[in-house]
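To: structure desk
From: M.T.
Subject: fold request, one chain
Message: Could you run this one when you get a chance? Sequence is below, nothing fancy, just the single chain.
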Amino acid sequence: MTTTHLFAELLVIGFGSLVWLAVLGASLFGWDLSQVSKDISLWEVLLPVLSLVYVLGILTDRVADWLFDRLDLRYRARYFAGDTDRFYEARRLLVYYGDLLWSHLEYGRSRMRICRGSALNALVFLISINIAWARAPASDQPGLL
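Reply: Done. Structure tokens follow.
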């Protein structure tokens, strides 16, 4: 995998984190997000926002990796029955003999990284949106009696 692919993955994950952080910040601190686009030019904040998104992507990826690692170990134990040597031997065979298989494995790992980060972002977004909804005045909550 190239560095560009990893950078793009981390940006995708980081933008998801930025969304729930904006919702959470708006609800906790009373920010009016509709005014942001009127007050600030996109070009003025593009580089700082991309830098923030990249760092958020790294942090979210690490946390998601840590959370999902337990699940990975459970599956590995189930399919390799505690024989970790067999697991690593299978990985070595892929590296040495299967360029096409190795590139497919890397592609799968890339997709898994994005899915892990997106799953974590979705969970935290749901929590953030519930906090925002709970803190909103009753007149701003459609459907409530």
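Reply (cont.): The mean pLDDT is 83. Let me know if you need anything else for the meeting.
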